[in-house]
Input
Amino acid sequence: MKETLKNNDIVLTGQYLGVVEEFLPEKNSTFVKEGKIYATKAGLVKIDDEKREIEILTHQEKDRKVPVVGDIVIGTILFLRRYSVGLNFYTINKKLHFNSYFFGNIHVSQISNRYIEKINDAFQITDIIRAKVSEEKTNEYDLSTVGKYLGVIHTDCSICGTALDKVGFDKLRCPMCGNMESRKLAADYRDVSYNLRY
Amino acid sequence: MMDVKRIISKIEKGYIKNNLKKEQRVDGRGLWDYRDFEIKTGIITAAEGSCDISLGGTRIMIGVKYDVGTPFPDTPDEGVCTVMAELLPLASPLFERGPPDEESIELARVVDRGIRHADCVQTKKLCIQKDEAVYIIFIDMYVINHSGNMIDCGAVGSLAALLSAKIPQGKWTENGPEWTGEYISGKDIINELPLAITFGKIDDMLFLDPNLAEELVSDGRITISVTKDQITSIQKSGSTTFEIDEIKMLSKKAFEAADKLREDLNLWQYAENIEEE
Amino acid sequence: MTLLIQDEYPKKLFREDGKRLDGREKLDLRPIKMEVDVIKNADGSAYIEWGNNKIFASVYGPREVHPHHLAKPDKGILRVFYRMATFSVFDRKRPAPGRREKEISMIISDCLEPVLFLELYPGTSFEVFIEVVDADGGTRCASTTVAALALADAGVPMRSLVTSCAVGKIDGELVTDLSGIEDKAGEADLPTAMTWFNDELSLLQFDGQITQSELEESLEMAQDALEQIYEMQLDALKRKYINIQEEAED
Output
């Protein structure tokens, strides 16, 4: 391989890409051995012109399993802490993952533009929420629900388990027992209809 | 896993239901349309008969093997035909490894009952010597990709695999069963083509041939196996109930769908013609 | 199991014109066809037709480890499940996995592990499922080849592909790529696999009887065959990307 690589060239697993003086290797799709860069995936080359970073994009890119900053995820609340909540999420950009899930945190300041006094006013355990990835950490993610379409998209009454009806901007009422609750709601609460990809 | 199913039923169910209300399906079909079948027979050299069938994204590999054994005491002159199904973990993240689970047993049983009660396989023709030797026919189904409605796909595929089978013909001698040097064809032992027709139910909406998304959010389903003029088996599954009027309507629909399918697929074309070789 | 036709092996494995029973020369491979991305549900998948062998492979991962105690805190694990369909062999096989299938699963897993970067995925597992739907000798080699292709299709980082092929001895002659009959009636069978990032062997089994010089010769024959198959593997991967490349350029 003497000719230099361009964007959108097909490279195959194990192919020699160049030397470290030439490119900055991206860690997930290339590896370096004795100063030479090799591809670890088959796909199309992407070279960042400014950083000279070389990366390989596979055809699974839109179904990718690892979330990055800016992705919209859907998951359920696992537990509440004093100033944050923990949740597992299963879908990334409408792609559903059956056997793998990721763990994320939402800090109280990242829930809404309004002031949230208690976490309980915004979320409860088992709520299904839509959130945006704002930061990647090792093995977990920081999420945010600031935004009109982010927040709770489905919740059940904490007394009788019936799905709650929306009665105000952040107010919910149980059609069975009349119990009132409050949440940080997404604008399309209980009116979500999606075509998920499997 | 539980959480994933809850998310699907809360989020995607709305989308599918809204479409069904408009008599549309998420994949663009009408309520009473099948996805496309694709059938290839005779692909597996080691099997007596085989079929690679796809229904939309669902793909099943079916092989027919035979064995000669002693008959059951209560049916001394009848052969045996057994159906086995395996949901390979290769086919979907929903399938787990391990011994056959309820879903795969249901698939095998429903296909088996459809075939058995239609007198589809003429078990009397599978007899070599009364009380001594009969054929045991194994139909084994391996699901390669799961995208809903494995039962209908498996039922059609089993018939195609059976029709394309070429089984050595046996005769009874003093030393036990021996090969006559001839073969019997699948079409000699099949006289009816029962087709399984599966309907899904979401709330009070009914539709034919549920795909994976519809199957995951549906409350229940019903499979009706029919020949040209007889119903041969019915299986209702899922935690829902059907009105009597609904069953009446569906059984009529099942005949309509089966007639159309029988015409479209023309299954007899897959029959192995021994004489011509 | 009583079958009406018995499985018989011919006495001679060469025809009178010096060719093998299926018409091949000593060094010829059987026709091989490979395809990637055949199972849509899987993260990556591949299919191979190698002579009469027909094998599907699919990869799921990185995902949760089941059962949990197998998970390793410092790296991911690779699990391979090699299975044969009941109708893939002459005598109907029992549906439950046997000892042979477990051994081959382990062999393939050991063979593929050196090329993976498992340390990037602590606490998770990659599961490779291999289903042989039609078998005719050399399924472990074909399975290794197709499993490597499925892993590459899944976008799992790999140092290189892995290719596998068998060499053997029939009627006193060394030949490449044994077919089912040659495997059963022949004298020796030497399956090999090569990892291309260091050009070393990562699978090597042998049974039969050969001399030391024959071993040397057969390893060289294996290397030639492996290079041919490697080209086909790369080609199968590349075909997938030609359409994607056109779309990306539009």
